[in-house]
């Protein structure tokens, strides 16, 4: 199964989660501008299928901060590379509601069309970056029922992450299952 992504971290996580062998495709897929990560992923999947002519999936994801009405959401990558973690934490300084969620939209495509799956992970923002694992906003995201950030506990991340939830739905759809996860 081909996962079209240039993000090596995403690919690694997906391979740890899925039981079938994944192949990474680096083809350059344009991302449409939309408020919906599902729409973005679906369009990218259509484009990828046109290029590859083989079943494949793409993923679009982001961090949605509740107090900021979902910002940065679909613009997470841009915000990460502009103001970064410290910029986001600065905007959040003094705010009492630090609730946030990651969302992952996986779009699978084959000759019968595109099918999308949405996964979420709920938590809250840390006061400062902690941990060196993972990527992106992992150092400032503390999932529910844990005190460590995703970057401090990548193993836990793979069991509860937005990506895990979306990929599990894809695996169910394809009837291939995912890797059995250790007891939490
Ligand atoms: P895109 O899906 O390539 O548009 O990138 C989404 C951006 O959201 C990434 O560049 C990260 O900054 C952020 N992001 C998405 N998923 C995760 C995650 O699992 N951990 C941390 N940051 C993430």
Q: Strand order across the biggest sheet?
A: 2-1-3-4-5-6
Main sheet, how many strands, which sense, barrel?
6 strands, mixed
Helix share bin: 25-40%
Rg calculated over all Cα atoms: 16 Å
H and E order? EHEHEHHEEEHH
Strand content: 15-25%
Overall geometry: globular
What's the total number of strands? 6
The tally of domains stands at: 1
Q: Report how far the terminal alpha carbons are from each other.
A: 28 Å
| Unreliable residue runs | none
Indicate the CATH architecture: Alpha-Beta Complex
CATH fold title: Maf protein
Identify the CATH class. Alpha Beta
Count of DSSP-assigned helices: 6
Mean pLDDT: 95
Bound molecules: inosinic acid
Category from helices, strands and their pairing: alpha/beta
Summarize the structure.
With 184 residues, the chain is of the alpha/beta class.
What do these coordinates show?
This protein is of the alpha/beta class and 184 residues long. It has one domain: Maf protein (Alpha-Beta Complex). 34% of the residues lie in helices and 24% in strands. It has a six-stranded mixed β-sheet. It is globular. 38% of the residues are buried. Bound molecules: inosinic acid.
Q: What's the helix and strand layout?
A:
Blueprint: E1 2-4, H1 8-17, E2 23-25, H2 37-52, E3 56-65, H3 76-82, H4 84-92, E4 99-110, E5 113-125, E6 141-143, H5 154-160, H6 162-174
Helix pairs in contact: 1-6, 3-4, 5-6
Inosinic acid binds at residues 7, 60-63, 76-77, 80, 102, 134-138, 161, 163.
């Amino acid at each position: 199964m081909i996962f079209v992504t240039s993000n090596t971290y995403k690919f690694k996580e997906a391979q740890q989660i899925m039981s079938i062998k994944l192949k990474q495709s680096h083809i350059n897929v344009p991302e449409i501008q939309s408020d919906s990560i599902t729409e973005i992923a679906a369009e990218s999947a259509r484009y990828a299928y046109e290029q590859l002519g083989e079943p494949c999936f793409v993923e679009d994801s982001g961090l949605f901060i509740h107090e900021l009405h979902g910002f940065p959401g679909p613009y997470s990558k841009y915000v990460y590379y502009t103001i970064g973690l410290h910029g986001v934490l600065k905007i959040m300084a003094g705010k009492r509601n630090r609730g946030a969620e990651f969302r992952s939209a996986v779009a699978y495509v084959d000759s019968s069309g595109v099918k999308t799956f949405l996964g979420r992970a709920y938590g809250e923002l840390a006061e400062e970056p902690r941990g060196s694992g993972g990527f992106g906003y992992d150092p400032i995201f503390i999932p529910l029922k844990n005190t460590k950030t995703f970057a401090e506990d990548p193993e836990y991340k793979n069991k509860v992450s937005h990506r895990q939830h979306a990929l599990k739905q894809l695996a169910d759809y394809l009837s291939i299952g995912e890797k059995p996860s250790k007891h939490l």
